[in-house]
Amino acid sequence: MGFCGEFANGTCFVANTLIQTKDGLKAIEKIQVGDVVRSWNENTNQFENKRVTETFVHEVPQLFFLELDGEEEIHVTWNHPFRRRTTSAGNVTSTETVPPFEPRGIQRTVSTHEHTLQPRTASSLVGSPDTKEGIVLAFDEKEAPHLTPNQLAPNVSKFLTSIHYSAANTVSESEWAKVEDLKLNDEVLKSDGSWGRVTGIYYYNTEPTKVYNLEVEDNHTYIVGGKESASNAGYVVHNYSKEHEAMFSKVRSVSKDMFDVAKQLAGLEGGTGNEVYQRAVKLDGEVKATNALRDVLKTESNALVVKREAAQAGLELVNVRNSEFLKAIRDPKSDNIPGIAELRKQLKGVNPERGFSQSEMKSVSGWMSSNGLGQGLGKTNLGFGGGVSGGADSRMKGYIVSTALSIASSEEHGRLTSSLKDSNEKLAQHKIKEDNIGRQLLERSNAAKADLVKLVQERHGNDPKYAEVLVEHGLVKRDSFEPNEHKVTYDEKLKSMGDKIKPDTQKKLAEYDRKITDLRVSQNKHEAESYAQWNKDHPNESYKRTPEMEKRRNDMIAMQGNLEKERATIINREVAPFTKENELHRLEKLSDANGLSEKQKTELTNLRNEKKAHESQVAALLDRDPSAIEKNLDKLLGKPEPPKDFKAVVKEADTRKSYDKYMGLSQEQINERSQTMAKEYEARDKTEIAWKKSNTSMSAAESDLKRIDANLSKLNTKSADYETKKTSLEEQRKTAQEKVSNIARDHKEYEEQKNKAFETVNKREERESKELITKLGNQNLDKIEKDIAAKKKELAEVFLNDSKNPDKKVKELTKEITKLNTQKDELNEKMAVAIKAIDDRNKSSDIVIGTLPNDLLPDHLAKFMDPVQRKMEWVEKNLAYIKDELYAGENVEYTVSGSQAILEEGVINLGTAHSNQFVDYGATVKIISDSDKSMFGNSNGLDYNEKTGKYEYVQSGRNTCQSYSFLEQLLYIGVLFRDSGRSPIHELAKLQYNLGLTAEMSTNTAAAYTKLLEPHGMKTVTLGDGDHGVAENFANIKAALKRGEIVNAGMYIDGPVNGEHRAGYDKDFNKLKPSKGHRVDIIGFDDKRGEWIVNDSARPNQMIRYKYNDYELGHRWSMVIRKK
């Protein structure tokens, strides 16, 4: 009958699988060509009746058992696509997981030893079901009685994967997913529009079993399953598993159509049926020959798939078996078994996944022999009989022995790994071969199709009776007989630009569609009448149009052309409007009322010419070349090219400065976004100001209360007026207490409002950053995909053209394709990491600033960080950064002297690290500015978290930048920090805390620095402050930099950095009044370009070039660290 799905391992279902037809449920093996089945239209999201165009039967040695909604059982091949639900971010969604012992899911443990095929008797020794350990398979309580234990071969990886699901209220989307990619609790589309749940899934080997598939017209989808007594809702599946399956379907369709055309043309007078028939026979022979070759590939691939899955399962069982043994010997219940303690030492650090080495296997065998358990591995006769019938220790020893009998060696792991690699490589080669075969055959079928059309048109021109035969079978489009001057079709334009067309415009386009259709229907009616009349009047002559009909036809073509041109122009105007349209409209209204001056008449004429030129330019870009329509549309909209370097992608996502262009927003959407953002930023700033005022009022009220309490405590009880004063103060205290309570209540409300406003702004930033990473990343992925497709096409041509040294060329192209696939995988991974980084950016983290062993050692025994080595490493890194990043593309001359880069008119000190105050703390310190991004505050200390029972070290943005800039100075001059396992910033934080400087780091920074430096014999030296002129400050800073020092300096953080948005600027980059302080390290200057070279911890991982007068950097307090 043919191939099942026409792919190496066909997409099929077993017999008795129910299919939903227009007349009810019917077994798949009973479906015939021409039957009408229910089908899902992916474009309209509607369920329709569609005709079956082909059926397939095949045999396979392996199937998947799929249980849906706890009741529907389906046996299907591994690659059949179901429609799986995803979130808007592309993640698989689920609202819950199936607990191990929920009524609709039971716990099964993978059988790893012969003795565990029966219910486990030693479970109490190494854990119980509620420990959530082991491997859990969840499926319905009903058994599968037709499957024997030998047939069941579950792939352990399907059940070891840990899945985290999104919340139920996420935005639903969907994708096609092969059965083998489905996981427990995935949701798949049902025929009533709801989502069914995967409640069980595993694969099994079987005797060669007949499986069936259908080909459905247009939609290529049908519905499997459903109960007559229930909702009758089945599950949506696709009849293809891969793109090239559709390709082979097209080839078969062309072959069939050519035979049908031959039959119809043979029945027409003067027809060319015989010639067409001969061509159809030739193409059919090529199809059969290709199918025979694909059948061989398919058989080989089936065997390779079985081999691959067996190797994968084997590798995972190695880990399961070895882990079970290690768990048993490490269990406290085995502590008293002789030799276990020594065995634990010998097996310390073993990786169960990679197997036991030869020496480790000998250790296990030696332990068994020394305990009278036979002659070691593979030689013991001990079973669950008499040898283990004693107490708990004896039972545990027996259990350990039973697990030891199944442990796997590293050699076994190596064999399985090689088998898996070999299978994957051969399967990849098979896929390339099949792709090449498919492309060759498709090219030949397209050529045969073109030759057929050419033959008919050469013999019969546009004679409608012959043309209609070609149109009916899809060999030509009707439009080819009614030419449209636009090379880009209407459907292509709608596909590319449909999302940018407003509803009102869509209604207008629909009206044009109706007019064009009416024209065609009317013309076809008159053509049919004319044709019938001609045959009546001229029975033995070929049809010729009368002059009246020819004129009518030409008029219709002209009218249709005008309508199509107007329709195309409507779309062009929608997506690329003339920017001066309003002014043009105003002048035209005045012209209609004869109210134009001579100057305005000239202006109107110019505007009309401008509009005409604009629309001609737009038409040239959007109506001529289908392959360039997306690129040209981006050009018209001013959309920039996506960054090619992923680092630039992340940078763009962080700044979001070109969000509207990259996302292709219309002007209306841009305006709406700007207005919304303005309101969000205004709400954020207002609520922060209100909160700060409330915070000040709260502090003042609490101070009054403390003052009254102090006065009460100082009263002299022996004084004559004691009672009078006491009564007065108590009244004051009562009033003050009420005031504190009232302010505290209001302050809490202000804080909630502030947090909500900040959260709104932050969520927008996160969402838009993720959208940009996804958009720009996918555009680069698309380019890689196109490159891969081009290479595959080139590979196919090698086979077609009998080129010289084909083996060498195939090897080169295969290598290039592999490289491109690696780039694609790497880019996908980078995108996932970047999006996760956005999610993690605002997560708070904990640290307990406790004492570690190295902290307690005397200096001569303690371990210290090496600042000299660190400085040398950063000299090399910074030299590379200067060349590749800081002055990329610029002609900058410099020489290197020690740890300095000597510029033409300046210097850069190279030995400092790039810090990121929002990342470098890692998962240890809660940074306030991470959550509200205010870059402002005075919190710096420990705070107890009742939920975790730990202390969190809390720093706000201002204090964090001070700590980082000061830290780099300390390390630069060689101050030693203990190396107790913390990062340098953690060590400084601990030092600040122990010296009680957490508040002074914000309120009296200079004093805090002095206290931190005194134990090291260092001091701060002021280079500039607000009392001296800027010129003097700058001169002092530059002199220090020339001496090789780095300078701790203050600045205002309001404003853009190299065009990037920064706190303090509004959405349109209009400068706000400077208000928020920030500290950085100036590491160099460049008088030729008028710039400071700065390490700024608030700008992640980079040196920054700041213009001399930007942000008042260096205008205020600046200092260096020197010896006393």
Per DSSP E runs of 2 or more residues, the count of β-strands stands at 24
- Specify the number of helices: 28
| Percent in helix | 40-55%
* pLDDT < 50 runs, ≥5 residues: 1-9, 94-171, 379-389, 481-485, 842-848, 918-953, 1055-1069
Return the average pLDDT rounded to an integer. Answer: 74
Strand residue percentage: 5-15%
Largest sheet: 9 strands, antiparallel
Rounded to an integer, what's the Rg over CA atoms?
A: 39 Å
Decide which structural class fits the backbone: alpha+beta
Span between termini? 95 Å
Number of domains: 6
Shape: extended
Task: Give a written overview of the molecule.
The chain has 1124 residues and is of the alpha+beta class. It folds into six domains: 13-87 and 172-240, Beta Complex (Endonuclease - Pi-scei, Chain A, domain 1), CATH 2.170.16; 242-375 and 395-483, no CATH class; 485-574; 576-639, no CATH class; 667-827; 855-922 and 957-1123, no CATH class. Helices cover 50% and strands 14% of the residues. It has 28 helices and 24 strands. Strands 13, 14, 15, 19, 20, 21, 22, 23 and 24 form a nine-stranded antiparallel sheet that branches. Strands 1, 4, 5, 6, 9 and 10 form a six-stranded antiparallel sheet that branches. Strands 16-18-17 form a three-stranded mixed sheet. Helix 11 packs antiparallel against helix 12. Residues 10-192 form the Hint domain. It comes from Leptospira interrogans serovar Australis str. 200703203. Keywords: Coiled coil.
